[in-house]
Amino acid sequence: MITASILNENYPLKKEQIAFYKKNRFIKLKDVLDKKTLAHFSEIITKKVEELNDVEAPLESRSTYGKAFLQLFNLWTKNATIKSLIFSKRMAKIASDLMQVDGVRLYHDQALFKEAKGGITPWHSDQHYWPLQTDKTVTAWIPLQATPLDMGPLEFSAGSHKILDGRDLSISDESEIAIQKRLKVTDFKHVIEPFDAGEVSFHSGWVFHRAGANTTNDMRKVMTIIYMDKEMKLKKPSNDGQINDWNTWCPGAKVGEIINSPLNPILY
Predict the structure, then answer these.
(1) N or C: the chain end with fewer CB closer than 10 Å?
(2) What pLDDT digit, counting tens, does each position of 112-158 carry?
(3) Which pLDDT score is estimated for 217?
(4) What is the DSSP letter of 105?
(5) Is the dihedral of CA 231, 110, 199, 114 positive or negative?
(6) In order of start, what are the domains of the chain with their CATH numbers?
(7) Which residues pair with 29 in a beta bridge?
(8) Is the pTM of this model over 0.90?
(9) How far apart, in whole angstroms, are the C-alpha atoms of residue 82 and residue 88?
(10) Which domain of life is it from (predicted)?
């Protein structure tokens, strides 16, 4: 039985790390979770994903989006052990410190399992889908195993949150081509690196990112937690995805008011 101790221990950030995040809108942090804790959550989350996954179509018959990953949401509502990770004060404080806000709420969690021989995750920005009034959002991307390059780790275009072109594109073949073309004429560094076991990345809602194909014979298992400023207000949705997110992840929230639904508790 894993104790909750590390999940509530402080992970002190250096001023240089906060400055790096502010400039680039992403950062990778070593040893956020120890290997024993990581293995424990990998087992529990994997079992829940296998239980809930209803994708039956063969990999080769799916769209680019369908080949990118199996995804399941808000696992914290379905398993108490998974909830202890999603509600971790250690993780939430990192998110709050990086964004330099007084506290964070949960937007939602999301398991992203890229199958063996699974395809790319095209270039995109997450906040395209979110009806949120400010950019004070950050996603913790938690690989549940060491993730070498051939497994398709997350890649970032450092500082690309400044680019407005491409923000209106959903994850698709179109977004991969259009955003890649736009990024090629900028000086933003394309960061492609493996992840060690226990290493976690944090990226903002508007920074462009992607992932390569999983060319191995093993599942690439990732859990994500999306945080927002605890004072975040709902904005009027500007696309169908944002309408869906409002109804699904912020039920009962009102435009112009702080998002304070039962699904959006303050975590730190």
Answers:
(1) N
(2) 999 999 999 999 999 999 999 999 999 999 999 999 999 999 999 99
(3) 97
(4) E
(5) negative
(6) 25-53+64-249 (2.60.120.620)
(7) 200
(8) yes
(9) 10
(10) Bacteria
Q: CB neighbours (10 Å) of residue 80?
A: 8
Burial of 146 (0-12, 13-18, 19+ CB in 10 A): middle
Scanning the structure block, which residue is given the tokens 């992203």? Answer: 112
* Largest distance between two CA atoms of the chain: 51
In this prediction, residue 54 carries a pLDDT of 84
Mark 30-52 as b/e (b = at least 16 C-beta within 10 Å).
eebbeeebbebbbebbbebbeee
- From residue 41, how far is each of 86, 88, 145, 214, 217 by CA, in Å? 11, 13, 10, 21, 21
Whether the CB-CB separation of 193 and 153 falls below 8 Å is answered with: yes
How many CA atoms lie within 13 Å of 225's alpha carbon, on the beta-carbon side? 27
Between CA 48 and CA 60 the distance in angstroms is 24
Residues 6+ positions from 93 with CB-CB distance below 8 Å: 10, 11, 268
DSSP code of residue 133: S
- Under 8 Å between Cβ of 127 and 205: yes
Average pLDDT over residues 3-21: 91
The span from the CA of 146 to the CA of 65, in Å, is: 24
3-state secondary structure of 29: strand
Query: In sequence order, which residues have a C-beta less than 8 Å from that of residue 111 and are 6 or more positions away?
Result: 45, 48, 49, 70, 71, 72, 73, 75, 221, 222, 223, 224
CA neighbor of 264 nearest in space, from 224, 226, 235: 226
CB 223 within 8 A of CB 41: yes
C-alpha–C-alpha distance, residues 24 and 240, integer Å: 29
